[in-house]
Amino acid sequence: MLRILSCSILLVMSLGCRPVPGPVAVDLGPIKQKVRGAFPGVPEIGISELVERLDLAEKPEVIDVRSAEEFAVSRIPGARSLPLEELTAQALLGLEIERERSIVFYCSVGYRSAKATKRLRAAGFEQAVNLAGSIFEWANAGHPLEGGNRVHPYDLDWGRYLREEFRAPISK
After folding, report:
1. Domain ranges of the chain
2. Beta carbons of 65 and 107 less than 8 angstroms apart
3. Long-range contacts made by residues 22-31, C-beta under 8 angstroms, separation at least 24?
4. CB–CB of 109/84 below 8 Å?
5. What is the rounded distance in angstroms from the CA atom of residue 31 to the CA atom of residue 72?
6. pLDDT category, 45, cuts 50, 70, 90?
7. Cα torsion angle, 146, 148, 150, 152, sign
8. In this predicted structure, what is the pLDDT of residue 172?
């Protein structure tokens, strides 16, 4: 048993994440570093910058690339759903989003949205950026949510990165 626990701790540490003490950990720093490492050169913005940009007359288009089930639980106010599996340049153009438009992609912690940003920038959407920390960081910072006051935690492991009061139950 001790050997299994030691191996688990070593695996978590090798991924650059710290073991999660107790039921909840909200430090997304190691996760955000892993995303940056996996997607070097993919531009991103932080939560504070998005809040400022949402107050501008010409707001960015905010696209949630999580699953429809995750989106149904809650979302960043004004966000539109376009799951990563369905995300293509044609799908964005079908939503009447021009290539020159400022677009912010987000997911749970930023991995899927970094992938979306990379894909769409390669397709000519040069103003696309990834929201660092995504909806988990947004909720943990106490920003408003649309549709509900809790966030779909993706799964039990990732849910530990949401403050307990913002973590929706998982139906699985």
Report:
1. 24-166
2. yes
3. 23/160, 23/164, 24/160, 24/162, 24/163, 24/164, 25/160, 25/161, 26/140, 26/161, 26/162, 26/163, 27/161, 28/109, 28/133, 28/136, 28/137, 28/140, 28/161, 31/109, 31/110, 31/133, 31/161
4. no
5. 24
6. very high
7. negative
8. 56
Question: Which one-letter amino acid corresponds to residue 76?
Answer: I
Main-chain dihedrals φ then ψ at residue 103, nearest 5 degrees: -130, 135
C-alpha to C-alpha distance for 89 and 122, rounded to whole angstroms: 10
Task: Give tens-digit pLDDT for 11-22.
Answer: 334 444 443 333
Q: Which residues, other chains included, contact 133 with Cβ-Cβ below 8 Å and sequence gap of 6+?
A: 28, 31, 32, 46, 47, 109, 110
Q: Which pTM was predicted?
A: 0.84
Superfamily of chain region 24-166: Rhodanese-like domain (3.40.250.10)
- How far CA 110 is from CA of 9, 35, 157, in Å, comes to 23, 7, 15
